[in-house]
Fold this sequence. Notes:
Chain A has helices spanning 30-44, 63-67, 80-90, 102-108, 110-119, 164-171, 184-196, 222-231, 236-239, 244-247, 264-276; strands at 51-55, 71-74, 95-101, 124-129, 175-180, 201-206, 233-235, 251-258. By secondary structure, chain A is α/β, with parallel strands linked by helices. Chain A starts with 29 loop residues before the first helix and ends with a helix. The relative contact order of chain A is 0.14. Chain B is built from two helices and four strands, in the order E-H-E-E-H-E. The complex binds thiamine diphosphate and iron/sulfur cluster (2 copies). Thiamine diphosphate binds at residues 57-60, 77, 101-104, 128, 130, 132-136, 141 of chain A.
Amino acid sequence: MMAKKKKAYRLKHYLREELLPTTFCQGCGCGTVLNTYAQAIEELQINPKDIVSVTGIGCSSWIPSPYFKADTLHTTHGRAIAFATGVKIMKPEANVVVIAGDGDLAGIGGNHLIHAARRNVGLAVFLINNMIYGMTGGQVSPMTPLGDKTTTTPYGNPEYPFNIAEFVAAAGANYVARWTTYHVFPLMESIQKAMTKDGFSFVEILTQCPVSYGRRVGMRTGEEFLKYFKENTINSLKAKDMTPEEIGDKIIVGKIVERNRKEFTTILREMNEERRK
Amino acid sequence: MIEIDEDLCKGCKICTDFCPKEVFETSDKINKKGYYPPIPVREDECIGCRFCELLCPEFAIAVVNE
Lengths: 277, 66
Ligand SMILES: Cc1ncc(C[n+]2csc(CCOP(=O)(O)OP(=O)(O)O)c2C)c(N)n1
Ligand code: SF4
Ligand code: SF4
């Protein structure tokens, strides 16, 4: 009898397969985000040749570079959105995607983020919020919760974190949502929405880092984080009828904003055409 | 049908813990990298929801609908 042919994972053609298994730690959520992203693209039938991935520095920056097989710009720490804006201006037909960490996008690159949202640049930005600087071993980030122990806050974090999704929404983005690596199915839909919507789209993805963050806050495995995400989140549709006291420490997931302002590079092109008449 | 690429697995047990039908158990044999991969011992109970396939951070699982 012929041996059963092994197929396993169906979407390997989207990945730089020769580099698997990934360098991510055991139970890290970065792989789950990449998995969900690949499935979202498969369902949308987007040709990866039409995608330009742009990223910065950090563990989560490895999701697009090297693992996702598309044209890729691996830029300096914090600068992904600046490079991506340049790509979008010169190549408006491309699907320009930024995937990077909370330290990268909300810390060192924070100003690029809010101004790209304000200008409504046509990018899909996925912020991998693992609440820490993972790659460098667990320093506090602008997304680390108040009171948490990290290598640079050994007595607890004295700072409040950003509510980055609300911040980007207030700055003017066309689409903003927040999900976690537990909510893979709605996350997939949200990624699809972000990649098809005109203007600046932003999805904050709470992602587990069991090694550089989790082990200092009492969550040493991926499973513990996923259970936490499952039990401590409320959908934004439900939360809108609740008082802040009722919401308490719960994390709001779901769509934060959706609007239809005209996209930056479109305005820019139209103005240029007008000027040349 | 559930297919597992054992040598990609990092033994995080996310699939084992989050399958709504508890289809998986952990193997007692290590893979090439020294991790214990899952075995779909209760494959008949699988409802084809693909939660394990999407959650797996190492692309080690495929749920194949026949
Ligand atoms: C200009 C500059 N400053 C500092 C660093 C060191 N550095 C490398 S990765 C990193 C933090 C990454 O954290 P984050 O963006 O949250 O990604 P994660 O690794 O957590 O996914 C830092 C500070 C650098 N590479 N470049
Ligand atoms: S340090 Fe954290 S973010 Fe980086 S690969 Fe390990 S678990 Fe993932
Ligand atoms: S989720 Fe993937 S990597 Fe984790 S134990 Fe299961 S097959 Fe292995």
